[in-house]
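Wed. Picked up where I left off yesterday with DUF454 domain-containing protein. The coffee machine is broken again, so keeping this brief.
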Amino acid sequence: MAALALGVIGVVLPVMPTVPFLLVAVWCFSRSSPALRARILNHPAYGPPIRAWVERGAIRKTAKLWAVLAMASGVGIAIWLGMPVWLIGTQAAICLAVASFVVTRPSR
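Structure written out below (tokens, as returned):
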């Protein structure tokens, strides 16, 4: 239920992701509440990307682009703020690993 609540908050707040939390909610509800899982999967706006991920592990090209740009921006802001080098390096390594995963997923 917490993942669903965070996903709903993400609809309103531009910096809060929506679909990842809804993916977690669908996974959790797949056994506990099939009706709520079906409701999330059939949502007109958020259902298609979630179904694409659940069925094929696919991510839209625009979502990939925004994800990579957001991660690069985060590293850039850390550099601009003068964060410690070890922290920037750690952040950059994690972002690179996540970006590599996102980019290599099939596009829907």
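Quick read: The CA atoms of residues 7 and 20 lie 8 Å apart.
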